[in-house]
Amino acid sequence: MLAGRLEIGHNAPLHVREERLSSCPDACRLLYASDIHLRDGRSDHLATQVVEAARRCDAHAVLLGGDLVDSPTELGTLRGMVETLARVAPVLAIGGNHDRRVGTSRVREAVIKGGGWWIHEGSVDIRHRTRVVSVVGPDFTRKPTGDVRVLCAHNPRIWRKSRRLGFDLVLAGHLHGCQFVAFEFRDRLFPGAVFYPYNLLSHQSGATRLVVSRGVSDLVPIRWRCPREVVLCYV
Asked: Most CB within 10 Å of its CB: which of 73, 94, 115, 235?
C-alpha cells in the first residue's frame, strides 16, 4: 500500500534512481541492486521487480550488492532470479551480513549456478565500446586497471579506506536510508544520519563518488519518504 509518502509493503514499483558519472550518450549503464532480502512470502515478487527494473533500464551489467537472501529456503529463488537477469546483462554479486547468516558459500553457489559471477574477493572487466569498466568486490586486494574503476560493496563504511584508492565509483547499501526520512541536509538523510554518518544518497570526494542505495526490501516493510530503489549508474 502506498499512501502519500508512506509505503507499507512491497507493492509500489521500485524507484530507479540515476547517478551520472558520464554525460556521454553511449555511457555504460550499471544497475546496482542491494538489500533484496529474499524471504518466504515475498521472494517471487521482489525478484520480479528487480528483473523488470533491469529490463526497463536496458542495463549493460547488473550488480547485486549483498543481503540477497534471509533464509536458506530462498536460495532457489535467488538462483532463478540470477538466471533471468543473466538473459538481460552480466550479473556480478557480492555478499552482505544477512548472506553470512545463511552461509556465504551457499549464496555464492546459487549465484554461480544461476550464471552470475561472484566477485566478493575478485573482479570482472566489462568491455563497453572502446573502454573497460573494472568492477571489484570489497575483499579484492589488487588495484583495478580499467578505464573506469568501480567498487561494488555492501557496507558504506568501506568509504573510509576506499576513497583514496583510485576508484571512480563506490557502491554500497546496507542502511536502507534508515527507512524514515524527515529531511536532507548536506547530502545526508535525517534523522538516520545522526546515528549513521553514511546514511546518504551520494557524496563526492575528489574524483571518487560514493553512492548509497536505499535498498530493495526491508525486514519490516514500512517506509516514510524513503522509496525502495535500485540505482542506475552511467559511467
From this structure: 94
pLDDT tens, residue by residue, 41-81: 999 999 999 999 999 999 999 999 999 999 999 999 999 99
List the grid coordinates of 108. 555464492
CA distance 72 to 97: 14
Three-class DSSP category at 12: coil
Q: Coil, strand, or helix at residue 86?
A: coil
pTM of the predicted model as reported, rounded to 2 decimal places: 0.96
* Residue 115 CA: distances (Å) to CA of 29, 75, 108, 138: 20, 14, 11, 21
Q: Are 30 and 133 in contact (CB under 8 A)?
A: yes
User: What's the pLDDT tens digit per position in 9-33?
Assistant: 898 899 999 999 998 889 999 999 9
- E-strand stretches of 145-225: 148-152, 169-172, 183-185, 188-190, 202-205, 208-212, 222-224
In the chain, which residue ranges form alpha helices assigned H by DSSP? 43-57, 75-85, 97-102, 104-113, 159-162, 192-195
17 close to 232: Cβ distance less than 8 angstroms: yes
